[in-house]
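RECORD TYPE: protein structure
NAME: DUF6593 domain-containing protein
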Amino acid sequence: MYSGPLPYIFEDRTGQLYGSDFDDMYDRLFYRVARDPHQTSTMIYDMGRRASRHRDSLPFQRSPIVILDFENDYSLGKICYARNNDASIPMNRYLKKTSIFGGSLSRKFTGSDGREYRWSYRSMRGQEWTCMTGPENFIVAHFDLKPADVQVYDVSGNTLTIFEQFIPLSVEILASLTIMRHIALHNL
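PREDICTED:
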């Protein structure tokens, strides 16, 4: 039997970049990533409970915990965490390229704990996105989309896994992943 801490495995209910619920399979945390179709801002909400299965029946009255204000679909804008009293940071300063000559799909950010974290695209077999830290490249989180040829039942098959010791950074991990996916989608 496994006796270590269980990772948080969030099911990404739609796999869509700008509109999905991220529900932990053990009902510990619930996030929503949503975008008004007429605006360029993407909001991340702490839902407090599993909303994805009852999405249409629940009134939605929450304040966002993160605002990702993309100036347009072809550039980066600013990120704002609600806990920082609405102080905005340009996304290109928040998520910096890991190398001058490297591609834009490998970027790093400094977490609220002061450590540096790096996202990379398809750097680990079977993982769409991988977040690592430290010189030993310790895996913090990974995001996986369901392969087209895999059949699933009553779940989407898309997951964001965050290892338990990094769950205090879960909002930062989800926000930075959303920016990385935007960068990949629009070849920024």
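COMMENT: The chain has a mean pLDDT of 86.
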